[in-house]
Write a structure and sequence with these properties.
8 strands, 2 domains, three-stranded mixed beta sheet
Length: about 260
Amino acid sequence: MFPNVKKVLDSLIEEFKNNDIPESIAIVKYPSVNVPCNSWSLMNLLLVLLHHTKDARGFRQWKEAKRHVKKGAKSFQILVPCFKKQEGEEEKGLAYFTTGNVFKVEDTEGEPLDYQLLQLPDLPLLDRAKEWGITVEAIGGNTHCYGYYKPSSKIIALATPQEKTFLHELTHVADEKAIGKLKGGQDPIQEIVAELGAQALCRMVGKDPQNTTGNSYRYIEAYAKEVNLTVYSACLKVLSRVDKALNLILKGGSNESLNT
């Protein structure tokens, strides 16, 4: 194994010791922005996430996007497969891996990218997120993801200005504060808690949720089926958990405030 390749793999394994692997895989498998690196291997996508970015490209790729790498910026390495034709074979096969250097979008400047143009509105209960040390940022959207909460980085990322999406992610934060660490990935019960909480919060803060109620029903229905429940049974099952999350959001503080 080439020394550079071993170094890259070792860094990834070390990161796995300190972070939630299912959460990381869920984020890279359902990327929040449409960028070239989405077509990379799972291993390389995890390396991108490891370096705290959602968009990484080579020097030439950034130039094609009319952006340039800032002076003094440091690249990081990804794995690059090399193919060659073996003796007696007609087609090239994987021979070995080498490494390639890429730069984070945060280390570039120039023309704005499509996903950087989204402007978030004055979101309800945004102060609660700030109180809990949560950063709320705009991202570009795709057909899979309109937002996510990443506990390890304390970030709510939104690909839509829709308030219910923010309230869904904020309910995830409150749910985590109430019960402890959330499960990685799209856990059905966690998603039902967040969606039911978001619909309740819309009403509590005076926002009209009518145009999203149908989508929420289908969202909850899909996750309820995964745990062999009806929508009604699923909502009843999580009701006390939703109540704790909403109390935290409306009162503020930590889970200790649930007892006051």
